[in-house]
Every structure is written in C-alpha cells, then in structure tokens.
Amino acid sequence: MKTLEYVLVYFGILILLNQTNENILANDLIYKSQVKKKIENCQKIHSCKYFLRFVDIYDEMPTIYIITPTYLRETQMADLTRLRNTLLLVPKIVWIIVEDSLEKSDKISSFAMESNLNIVHLAEKTLKLEKPSKYSAHKGVEQRNRGIYWIKEKQPQNAIVYFADDDNSYSLKLFEDIRSVKKIGVWPVALVGGLKYEAPICNNDKVVDWFYAYNQRRYVPTDMASFAINVQLLYQFDDSYFERFTKSDLEGSFLKRLNIKVADFEPKAEVCSKIHVWHTRTMLVKIRKGEIVERKI
Amino acid sequence: MKTLEYVLVYFGILILLNQTNENILANDLIYKSQVKKKIENCQKIHSCKYFLRFVDIYDEMPTIYIITPTYLRETQMADLTRLRNTLLLVPKIVWIIVEDSLEKSDKISSFAMESNLNIVHLAEKTLKLEKPSKYSAHKGVEQRNRGIYWIKEKQPQNAIVYFADDDNSYSLKLFEDIRSVKKIGVWPVALVGGLKYEAPICNNDKVVDWFYAYNQRRYVPTDMASFAINVQLLYQFDDSYFERFTKSDLEGSFLKRLNIKVADFEPKAEVCSKIHVWHTRTMLVKIRKGEIVERKI
Known about the structure:
Two copies of one chain form a homodimer.
Chain A: H1 2-44, H2 46-55, E1 63-70, H3 76-87, E2 93-99, H4 106-113, E3 119-123, E4 136-137, H5 141-154, E5 159-163, E6 169-170, H6 172-179, E7 184-186, E8 189-192, E9 195-203, E10 206-211, E11 227-230, H7 232-236, E12 245-246, H8 250-257, E13 265-267, H9 269-272, E14 277-278, E15 294-296
Parallel strand pairs in A: 1-2, 1-5, 2-3, 7-13
Antiparallel strand pairs in A: 4-12, 5-11, 6-14, 7-11, 8-9, 9-10
Binding site for Mn(2+) (chains A, B): 167
Subcellular location (chains A, B): Golgi apparatus membrane; Membrane
Pfam families (chains A, B): Glyco_transf_43 (PF03360)
C-alpha cells in the first residue's frame, strides 16, 4: 500500500511539474515569438534597423550637444522641421535651440514640446552694437554664446559640442564622425566660401593644409559647420566664446581662444574626402501684399 | 527495498526536473532582462520610441509611394540628403526617385544604394518641346509621369501616392495624414503662390473653398505638395498622367483627369488648420571662377 501511495504521489507530482514546465515553455515560446515579430517588423522600418546598432553601445557613447541659433522669418519652421527630422535620427543628443529674441516664443516652445527630442530652449537677443571699422559683424554670436554658457553651467562630461545652423543640410554620417571626436574633429563643408566645398587637405591622416578661397588671413579657414570640439575645451578656457566682431574670422578667432593648433585637427569624413554637410541657404520668400483671393471651387 | 528505490528514483527525477525548471526560468530571466535592456536603450533613442507605435499595425498599413523628380545642380545632394533623412522616419514607403537625364547617374545610384530605404531609381529626360502660346510649361512632368508609369506596371494594391519635390520641407505628421487617405487627401502648403500658405477651407469637416491667390482659373487651386491619392485612381484612368503644358494648372488638370470632385476631398492636417509641408526653395549658389587659393596653415 505504501508503495502504491509513493507511486501515486510520485506520478501526481510528476504531472504537476510537467505542466508547470510546459506552461513555462509555452509562455516562453509565445513571448519569444511576440518579441521576434516585433523585431521583424522593427527591422522592416528603416530607421529601427539603423538604430539597432546603437542599442548595445548606448551607455558608452558621448552625448552630442548641438547648438543652433535661430531667428524669426517665414522659412524658420520649415528649416527647423527639416533639422528636427535629421536630429531625430541621431541618438544621444541634446539640442540647444537659441532664439534671437528677448523671450522664448510660443511657436518654438510648442515645436520643442512636441519634438520627442531632448531640447534645451533658450532666448538671447542680439545686441545693437556699433561695428568697429575694419571689422565684420557676425550673426548668431550671442545665441551660440548663450548655448556655450548653458553648457558651462551644466558641466556635462562625456560630451562633444557642434554648432549647427538651422538651414544647413546634414548627412547622418556627420554625426557618426562627431561622435568619434577626441579633441577637435574637422571635415569638408560644401557650398561655402564661394566654392563647391572648403576642406582640410590631409597627408597620412593628418591635416596639412586647407582648401578654400575666402579671406586668407583667417587663423584657420574653417566654416562653423566644419568642426566639433570636446566639451572639456570649453571648461579649460574662460573666454571660450565667439566674438561679435572679428576681421572676417569668426571661427578662427574662436579656435585660437581654445589654443587649437593644426596638429590637433582630427580629420573625419574618410580623411576629408567626403561631403557630409552642406552650407545651404533657404530662399526667403516674397509674400504678396494686398487683397487675397478667395472663391468657391 | 522497493519503496526505497521508488523514493530514490522519485527524488532523483524531482531534482533533475527542478534543475531543468530552474534553467528554463534562469534563461528566461536573462533573456527577458536582455530584451528589456535593449528596449530601454531603444526607448532612449528618440526615433525608436517614435517607431514602436507602428510595429504592431505594420502589416495593415498601406504603402506610401513617393515620387520625387530631381535634376543635377550644386544643391541636389544637399536637398536629397535632407529629404532622405525625413523619409528614413516614415515607415513602409517606396521612394521613386526619377532623374531628369537619359541615364541614371552614378551619384544618385550610390545615394540610393547606401540609403537603407526602399528606393526605385529611374531616369527620364525632359523632352525639348515647343510651348504652345497661352500655355505654360511645367517642370518635373516627364519624371513624375515615369514614376506613375512604373506604378501602373507594378500594380501595388494597398497604396497611396504622393508627389514630393526634393527641396520642399516635410513634417512627419504629413505622412501620418497621407497614410490615412481613402481617395484623395488635401491640406495646406506653406510658402506657395506668393502667400504664407495656400489651404483648403473647411466647413463641418468638408472642403468648401480654397484660400489662394495665384491663377483663379485653375480646376483646383492646389499645389503638388498639397494632395495624395489612392493608387487605384491611377489604374481607373488611362490618361492619369501630368500634362507638360497647361494653362498654369498642372495640378488641377491632373486631378480633372482623375475625375476628382470637391466632394472627394478628405481634409487632413487637423481639418486643414496646420502646416505640415513647406514649399521651400534652396538658394542656388554661385561658385567662384578662376584661381583657387591654397596655403599652408
């Protein structure tokens, strides 16, 4: 009798265990097939595929701080929307948008709110200053400096800083290059300085020269869009800000303040042989004056 | 002895089963935590978050066929790159790029190859035809028609067609609107026809009028960027192509061929109250002639 009891209990427990086992296996299979389906569908969506490569290295990646000066005009939302679309494809960024105004506008506030991006929205009005003779006045200076000031206050550590105007055109590869910057990365910029492109000239993976036409007296003949810097450079120098008036050398005078030497340049964009950024300008439109036509159709 | 044997076998099997059980549970936990970590990191990447909403409905979504005429110019790659970035954020599309040339260029071929997008690359040279008097000649007509012809050949079924110029600016919301089109969707377009925007005027969710200024004689005063159609319309009408010469009514004459009536218009963009597309133009740049300066820096 005892034996029979043992046998019964034994089979009873066996059946129970087996069921639990099967349940776990079944749940596991359902779960895995759901995840598989999700991943398959995700793979079908182009950008998901693009992003999967960043998922495993996300925590180690430096953050890119992108400073964008902007000002009110008919084409502003068009340009910002295009730039937002591009930046939505760049993981781990902080987008610092600085309006040229006394206060933050409702329009840009809503834009930032609905963006699903990590946006810092600031405002800094361009000062009315008299230009010294023989100097040129630069646009976006107070706004970029406001962005730099914000960064200096927050003191992020593992970060790269890039100054991105709102009407330029950026390839995604540019941001992969920026991500790999140690001290200062440089690369060609298309449609700038009256040329098809301005570009660092390299020899054995080092920058030895620069291809450009405009103003030979510049400290470095580089466009705003052609470099990105390690955030630590901003902390090392108290005057790491742009100057409103320079001798046509906005970028060079800034890099001089950061004590950048030619030897510091890290050439990107396949040793400066590719174009990943274009200095485009969006045409300002003429809006018709007078009466507007409305008719039934 | 028999009892002892049973008991031993019983505990033996119990231990074995338990281990299997624990292994399954342990594997399951590791697997789940890995997936969780992946999803967490994916969530941190803005666009992944954006895309997760499409994953479950992917199979039922109609495909959007986007026809983009393009032509060689200094700003071409900049414009196409920006548009590519936008389209990378739109799931389930086929991007039909039609070059204005006899043969497909290497440049656009490489661009298409490296895009991670479902691109159909075609070429169709604009014919040199004499314009009849009182008519206006339109750009991009042969290229859009080549795209339409390709679609008519392939006969995709659950699909919407949109004509997207390469230099316009598109918000992602536009494509969500396009996805929901049944017959023909319409919406405002900014910076067009000499106005801040042209737009359908709605009453009780129906289009009753149009806000515009340019050419009152148009069949429908709508811009190319302001509508998308169900692909079935292309199959229903043999002459569902654009006309090279019209009385300044490229879009209207096309919609007339599709027998579109005002009652067919499905107003999008929150009953045509929002701007999701801008008719931007990229400034053509002047490239400096003559000697190029190169100097050691």
